[in-house]
């Protein structure tokens, strides 16, 4: 093909990467051109030989030799087919066609349509009517540049000059030439790790592309574009969003393990899984993320019984001191619907022990009241549970005498307090005595007892007491009755707050799947928010200490419920905080939704990577058209319902590429396992 491009330097990158034999094929010439649009003149024969020219095809235009020794034509324009365009002589050609048919009808003894319309045209007329015009958008210009003494292929998203139309020849990139274009990455200064994500797919109909062996031009992306940035997976249900997410997750795991192997910090990945499709195998996507290995994947779910070490319980032990922060968060959220001052006080207080004073009395007192409220609400109590608090010997005696005096037979000889430390004031209260002890302290205070008044004066006690007594400022409140819906969150067997355990696993670079497909929606919603709130708190804690927070990726489904425009106005909303603060806290976020318009504009405006599958209405497509030039694909996005057929725009890619996403399969699982030094799996289990 050298003779086609005499003005392009022999052996140049433009030729070797884009224009060489096997990388492109000639399909026509430029008919009209300006800085943004071009019309390509082509012929039916040329289109057939090239395997067709579907809509959205990439084309290349290069200037031919204009008989000047130093002509400035070492550039190649990148075009994208958007439709057809009338040619200047097209009306005349239509007239020729019409005249030919009139003549055939007049001269043929058989006037039927099959005889007349199928009559052979003379070669001259047939050739003239076979020319067509293809309307193209000019995406930019490929050219060569010197970077650190090395020739590199550069791309500019505009045109800095153009020649007379007669100087341009147009080619259709194929094979490796098409893969070069589809996988081109603009320099960003960030590390580059290329991975295959799929193959170029121009249209739903692929017969001609497959017949011409043009259906598997690889599309590679820089997987690091997805790490630490926002990624949108947009499309209707069962259009392949979760399959794409699995590919991104597995590829990110490979990067994480390579970093770990070279002494770098690994990347944790947190997946909220409302359908159980990441934790469990399914026929839609093939295999599951958990297949990467039990050493690298942790699954948190309701009902976990400890039989599988990598499957952890998602429930919280409401009676565990080390989980009091999570308990407070869940209860505060549950109480938020009640209009009473104690609710705000409860949410703002601290119920964990002060690290500087292990035996600080006040948090223990408030916890004891809270445990009493939980017992009243019917929460199962862990075996041998006792509340730890600090209470003066004088008040202990009054409470003990009061309890025994109320129940002289049953209570005779009862000892509600057991010494728990070096001083007599530090005691524990057995679970079956907590309600009676709190009740008696309240009674003594109401009767004016100074020891009881002093014991209950702290704001923490005052914020919890209405939950126990169902009275606040002499008016009735629901108190502990509000806690009934939280019982499914509770397990007396849980040893550690799952949110803390999840964060620790993420810091270790593991993939954590929060399996939410079992459990009421209200419960899973609050629990997801609790986990995310703890994640943000921990990352912020590291960030504000002057250190670099660990890299963590978060995967969210049903994003329109989390990032709606109305919700985005609430600065305290945990999902809004995640969207706003993710970047500075080294939190990457992948969000999936079928409702593009349901996601706040601010979230979309800060989205780096876009994976757009089929959407079924113009409202969503119009919203999508506000970003990049997705509007050019609007009709195709609505019309094409093929699973995994997407329009892809990544942070490093300068233009949108239509892609058929590869399927997440056992080969990708084994690539991830190999990066971690684990043996491969077979379709039937581990390889022997």
What's the arrangement of strands in the largest beta sheet?
Answer: 9-8-24-23-22-10-21-20-11-19-12-13
Number of strands: 26
Biggest pleated sheet: 12 strands, mixed
Helix content: 25-40%
Structural class: alpha+beta
Average residue pLDDT: 84
Uncertain runs are: 1-11, 408-412
- The Rg value, from CA coordinates, equals 35 Å
> What is the CA–CA distance across the termini?
51 Å
Q: Tally the helices: what do you get?
A: 23
- Outline type: elongated
Which percent band covers the strand fraction?
15-25%
Describe this structure in words.
- With 688 residues, this protein is of the alpha+beta class.
- It has a twelve-stranded mixed sheet. Strands 1-2-5-4-3-7 form a six-stranded antiparallel barrel. A three-stranded antiparallel sheet has the order 14-16-15.
- The protein has 23 helices and 26 strands.
- It starts with 12 loop residues before the first helix and ends with a strand.
- α16 crosses α17 (521-544).
- A hairpin with a 2-residue loop joins β25 (681-682) and β26.
